[in-house]
Specification:
1 helix, four-stranded antiparallel beta sheet, 116 residues, binds zinc ion, mainly beta, elongated
Length: 116
């Protein structure tokens, strides 16, 4: 009788949301005209897309969506709140105070990696 279990070296990573096997990393989805690549944590394409829909923030400069798990520029406003901009030359102005990494749940998982 042939074993049906998948040998170890064929095992794939598992989506951390739904447990579906993910054969190839990074997971790439297209969201709001942008390609989103995520290595870690592991998501299948449909979970990543739904995370993008739930957790994206608006770019303060161009008004487009910034997907989670991507680099962002952060602007501190005079009122103590933060605004996010794309990390592109078009959107990230010289006045940006911080560069960071936007995670799931926006500011709750926001990592500041550099301060100018
Ligand atoms: Zn999934
Ligand atoms: Zn932008």
């Amino acid at each position: 009788m042939k074993p049906t279990a998948v040998p170890n070296h064929f095992q794939t990573a598992q989506c951390s949301e739904c447990g579906t096997g993910v054969a190839r990393l990074p997971t790439v989805v297209e969201f709001d005209g942008q390609e989103v690549h995520v290595f870690d944590p592991v998501f299948c394409a449909s979970c990543l897309l739904s995370l993008c829909e739930r957790y994206s923030v608006d770019c303060a400069n161009c008004g487009g969506k910034i997907p989670p798990y991507s680099q962002v520029g952060v602007l501190k406003t005079g009122t103590g709140t933060s605004q996010f901009v794309h990390m592109t030359t078009a959107c990230s102005t010289v006045g940006s105070a911080f560069h960071g990494y936007l995670g799931k749940g926006s500011l709750g998982d926001f990592y500041q990696v550099e301060a100018c």
